[in-house]
From TrEMBL:
Biased composition range(s): Polar residues: 301-318
UniProt superkingdom: Archaea
Name of protein: Lipoprotein
Bias type Acidic residues, positions: 48-57
Region (Disordered) location: 22-57, 299-328
PROSITE patterns assigned: PROKAR_LIPOPROTEIN
Amino acid sequence: MARRMLAVALVVLVALAGCQSPATTSDADGTTTALNTTEAPDDTQTGDTDDFDYADPETDRLGWEGGYWHNESLPVTVSDGLNQSERNQVINRSMARVEQIRGIEFEEPVSVDVISRDTYQDEYADSGDTSPELQTFDNVKFEAMFLIGETDDSISVQESNRGSNVLGFYTPKDDRIVVISESETPTIDENTLGHELMHALQFRNFDANFSSPTRDKANAHNGLIEGEASFLDNTYSEKCGAAWECASPESGGGGGGGDLHLGVYIMKYFPYSAGANFVEHVYEGGGWAAVEAVYDDPPASSEQVSEPQKYGSDQPTDVTLPDRSTDDWNRVTVDGRAEYGEVGVGGLTAMFGYPAYEQDRHSQDYVINPLNLDENGNVVRSSPFNYATQPVEGWDGEQLWVYENGDQTAYTWRLAWDSERDAEEFATTYRQVLQYWGAEQRSDGVWRIPEEESEFADAFRVTVSGDTVTIVNAPTVDELDDVHQD
């Protein structure tokens, strides 16, 4: 029953994710990008005031764009879609609203296109050609997290998730926003638009083009970028229907349905969930000036985002993992990426949390509840996942090396922790994940998932040494030492 309640809670959450839906256009390990209340720099113009002068100002100013004030009502009809003139009105007013909340002027308009989900899936969701090395590396990384098995293509699964869930994105190269409309007649969700407009301000005004060679670094950097946009659109959403009239369509279709892989979703949602909390923490300590300063010194790990008090103080460890494979096994590396995988607390939370939603092993209990619940047991919608659960909160660094031998693959994964206790806690929970997927213990530290049990059938060796955990994976128990000999 508890597992079913978790599944229902996440389905509801995914359906509600529209106003802060992932806006990235690609990743596989690197990235391209795409609280609850904040104070407007000058909130005297917020709300319905009979004596407010809606005349156009003589010069451009915060809270006014393209002929529309941020608190102005528009003569548009949402139910039958928005024609081009109506879309322009909504876009200009949304720009005024974003700059009113954030306190940064739009010096130039932002190009906004509205397309159907079918068009997005046909033209944007595909990551394009991938090298054999990237395909192998990514497949093994997702297999190591027990998210995508050996028979499936990890990049295709990620593309499918993007195609069914993304509601909009911003491309810094073109300084352009694309919003996905779920209706035949184009509509615009104002929260999605506000989120993407915040990205335009970020890339126009700050150095937001971070180098992110691993998943952990991508989640760390996007925790700032997407976190600030999510923090802003939470405020935008709260004002809609209260201080502001909004032209968003009624919720209902698309954006979080279909064959969404919930384990991958948990990992990819990290910047939006943990990031919003991170930016709120920074904002409360020093306002928008403090948030802007983070662009000059971005988080060094996703742990610093999920636990904001560690930002600037708890730097990740440079993990050492020597290559002890035989000549039969060759390292797989990808040009332009780090030579190793590093999934961080976002990936580890997805690994431990996915069994709560995985549909093929109904008789098995889940490992952890990944949802962030308030004191009443309700999901915190502004930050719905808890990426600082006990098994991952002491993370201190990692390296995952991918190997291949013909058409077989293997990996060695070393994770550093803040203490020996943290290492033991992680190892204990990892063994629970092994057992969930059907693993049987063969000897001290060695486990085997039989072929008939799951798509993760392999041999595993789990070793704890002080504050580090080393996991070795191979097709068979006899090949473990060939991949990495202790």
